Amino acid sequence: MKYVQQKNSYSIMSKSKYVITRPYENKGRWNQIFGNNNPIHLELGMGRGEMIIKLAQQNPKINFIGLELDDGQISFAAKRLIGKDIPNLRFISGNALALEKMFGREIDLIYLTFSEPWPKKHDEDKRFTHISYLKIYDKVFKKKKHIILKTDNKGLFAYSLESLSQYWYTFKKVSMDLHHDERNIPNIMTEFESNYAKTTNKPIYYLDAEFEG
Ligand SMILES: C[S@@+](CC[C@H](N)C(=O)[O-])C[C@H]1O[C@@H](n2cnc3c(N)ncnc32)[C@H](O)[C@@H]1O
User: Fold this and answer.
1) Is beta strand 205-212 parallel, antiparallel or unpaired with respect to 170-175?
2) How far is ligand 1, taken at its centre, from the CA of residue 44, in Å?
3) 69 CA to middle of ligand 1, Å?
């Protein structure tokens, strides 16, 4: 059954104009893929791509790339886009650990949305804000580093605040309750996020951090 699903995902992905299955070949030439020099925003672990698809539709002067390990999720996103034309959007099937094989210094902003929290201490290095990941991001950011993170997980949020500040990032915005924040921070809600907010009454945490060296 798994084999049939994988075969099906591969077939959808290989026919989709949005999916890049061999991203290493595009390192240093993403501006050619998009046909312009607009900024590139990357989401790590885009899932079914709900947020990145809407961001791309709302911001045609920014290029968006969603990276995802799970081909089932990518093919779900690609299927939803059949017949649609969003030239500033691409998906990559791949692992965030290999970012520097996919990109030169080409990225303006990294989104980390509802990433796995990996709460156990021995899994700490799998968190997307662990110092080993921050060092990988250094290799793909243009001069300025910029990360936006959104999570329902207080532990991951606290960890990320500490990890980013120890790595000299400063915070443009921090919210302990994004949905009720009086500053009206722009937000695209995913289905998980709106269900979570409705059913739990717990906050969504948000941070916008940057470092200009
Ligand atoms: C909890 S989901 C969140 C999906 C999406 N960002 C959202 O808000 O709906 C986390 C996603 O990250 C992906 N992921 C986890 N580790 C990854 C890695 N190292 N590289 C790429 N994707 C990864 C998982 O496959 C999963 O789809």
Assistant:
1) antiparallel
2) 7
3) 7
Please report the atom of ligand 1 found closest to the CA of residue 45. 12
Mutate to test the pocket of ligand 1, among 9, 48, 91, 115 (most ligand atoms within 8 A of CB): 115
| 17: Cα separation from own chain's centroid | 19
Is pTM beyond 0.85? Reply is yes
Query: Residue 95 C-alpha to ligand 1 middle, in angstroms?
Result: 10
Full pLDDT tens readout for the chain, 213 residues = 566 666 688 888 989 999 998 999 999 999 999 999 999 999 999 999 999 999 999 999 999 999 999 999 999 999 999 999 999 999 999 999 999 999 999 999 999 999 999 999 999 999 999 999 999 999 999 989 999 999 999 999 999 999 999 999 999 999 999 999 999 999 999 988 999 988 998 999 999 999 987
Are 13 and 75 within 8 A, CB to CB? yes
